[in-house]
Amino acid sequence: MDDAAGAYVISGPTAVGKGTVVAALKKRYPQVYVSVSVTTRPPRSGEIDGVHYFFVDDPTFDHLIAADGLLEWAVVHGVHRYGTPRQAVQEKLAAGIPTILEIDLQGARQVRTSLPDARQIFIAPPDWAELVRRLHFRGTETEEEMSRRLATARQELAAEGEFDCIIANVTVEKTVDELVKFIGL
After folding, report:
1. What pLDDT sits at residue 15?
2. Is the pTM higher than 0.70?
3. How many of the other CB atoms lie within 10 Å of CB of 26?
4. Exposure of 101 by Cβ count < 10 A (0-12 exposed, 13-18 middle, 19+ buried)?
5. Residue 172: helix, strand or coil by DSSP?
6. N or C: at which end does the chain have fewer Cβ atoms within 10 angstroms?
7. Which domains does the chain have, with CATH numbers?
């Protein structure tokens, strides 16, 4: 596993299946560390604080920024802030543990500065219609939120050339297989 040790950024547009793919990778390779992001958005049904995200208020997020406690942070979809806690990632990397950061495009761009050796992987949808279908099927956003997310998704898709590797998420199993090959697990 020494060859796989390092940081891997997994990014892509909303509803492309990043979370599902990362969860399947983690199930297959439990030794991989998946960073838990911090966010100011409220939890969705079934989400657990400290497992899916660390849910915090705005003053707590402001403190993390001021204390340089985040590797990256961004306002996502024009509403809520998300960020990657620095300390846990640095501890895992120092221990030689492969570390996954599942983050948005803005965060991926910041990580190129804060963790320049991180490998960047873009998860793409098979096509636009499938991305729209997945977002609607998820059923967690209002029509207004879906419109905002799809506008952001168009910008994110235009940036796929910035990444070291592009993997189309046709099926979760094939996508995880491609990630495993790229990471070297």
Report:
1. 82
2. yes
3. 15
4. buried
5. helix
6. N
7. 2-183 (3.40.50.300)
